[in-house]
Fold:
Amino acid sequence: MNEMIKGSNVALASLSENVGSVIVSLGWGSPTGEGDADVSVLLLDVNGKVRSDTDFYFYNNPVAADGSVQLLGKTPTADGNEDRISFDLTAVPADVDRMVVAASRYNAARFGELEDVHLSLADGAGDDLLHFPIDDVDSMSAIIFGELYRRGEEWKFRAVGQGYDAGLAGLATDFGVDIEDDAEAVEAQDDAAADDQEAMTAPAPADEPGPRSTPEAVPPPRRPAEADESRKPATRPRTAKKKITLPKVARKTLAENESWREARLFPVSALKSDRDREMRATSVLLSVMAQVPEFGRRLTAAFGAPAGRRETFAEVTLPHGDSPRRPDGVIRVERAGKLWTALVETKTNGNALRADQVQAYMDIAARRGYEAVITLSNDVALEGSPLVDVKIDRRRKHKVALWHLSWAEVTHQAQMLIRHEGVGNAAHAWLLQELLHYLQHDNSGCHGFQNMGPAWVPVRNGIDDETLCHGDARALEVVESWERLIRQVCLGLGGELGQKVLPVQRARRGTDPGERRGRLADQLCQDGRLDAELRIDATPGVLAVSADLRTGKLRTSIDVPAPEQGYPLSWAKRLVRRLAEAPADLHIETLVEGETGGPRGTLERLRPEPADLLPKDSGTRITGFRLTLLKGMGSGRGNAETGFIRSVDEAVHRFHKSVMIHLDRPAPRRAPTREPATTN
Structure:
């Protein structure tokens, strides 16, 4: 893998033959686990400017209509998160000369607060081609990580590493993006100014030196003038207009009574065996992927597939020695006369993938020039811990990528589209609705991670009788199962909320996933506890989850920082009022500076006396409040109602629904303002 330095460049074709599509990943870690940034891409012409405002892709405009750019979102890594962007270089319009990849922080944050800021680029087979570490940007709120640019008929990459202290608004303006007034954001900024001493300043007047705009976020691109003369900003350009989602309230049924069952496109009652479930699930998924472009593209873009005409096939027979093989499915995409092909191997109902099957499909794909093999099961893949070990023949010129997809991730992507982001028409919405109904049916076998594994009971018993020793391999198996469970909980909650929910990996715990899990296994042997943290967009803190196998209790909690202004008694009263509908057994603890803990009590006891949350010493500085719910955990290793998996999922959902939604949200990202243009 090429290590890039600032200012260096390289031709992609010299690194790999499979660069028709590439994945660019921007990564960083945070000592606190709370640092984050937004990625963006700008398509520029030969003059170094965007052709129009729609050439600016960011969190509110994530996908190009031609499929050339797609922001795939965040993926957790061992030391933080990576934000990934898919580029289909064969689909980039001819008048685009280069594509700039950037990221920005918000609310006056700087990249100096993050660790290991870097960019990496992988080819269509998933092989990492280059790595570019970035430093010397401590005071910068936006960075141009790099750019993809044309030289004749080939694409090259340049490592830029240029910082902007004016934020993404200044960067975007320099490239010709027309920053639009946002009256609502301006009003919110004015209202918040009295309460937020660190609010960002307004743009400098025309007769004073300084950057053109200083706020840290950019509003959605301007709509075409002929479509909107009132200049009202679009909340979700390219996705909100004429998009179809499920209605918030279900229509009244015409059924005579509850025994009448609605006819379904994908029935599940006839499924009697695992083979039936695998065949039906594969056919259902692939058919919907082919018929709903938004859904099919979302799943395949992460695997390096180009945007183009997509067809899917089930039960295809392919030659392999003396006995032909029949993969569960095939995905084929055509773009500019070229084909991208992936073989699909499916498992349902908790069945494990077979290494010999996957190995055979990898060999077939390599011989036939196919690009990928995709495995699909209820299991969740972990970084550095492959589900299936396969041997790669390095002598082969053609490389085949091996990808894994969990049924929980399929469900998550369908939920995001049909419930929150929307699809192109009512027929596509209905197809996704039927797919979701099928995946969530008890008889489909597509329920995601649902078994803590054979080590669960021995480890739990070893903790009970204090016989579990350090170095026991079974403790590591339980830690890996716990990590899979937490990732699935994030997918489920994120699909319901329409927000990013990611497990937090703190940098101080190390960057090697194997070493990190080993330390967690040692903690499990010593304390009998499994810990995890979840970050949910638009919430004031990290949701901590702790499973104490000694006491059989699940603890969910969040630390809420103290306001920067006001009086402690006012903070306590406001917090109790906000939690008026929270469970009475919610524990509230005051966090104080320099001490292990302050006053605490249940919400039921504190409602009439919020002042009990204040330390007796009035000079003690309050740093925040910790809110905690306790719940008995299931003991079984499976997904039954009395099982551990179900109890963790319910505890997280209950805490968010009954506690976190009542808390004050973090300050919104403020949009920049611009003085109206005048003509003489």
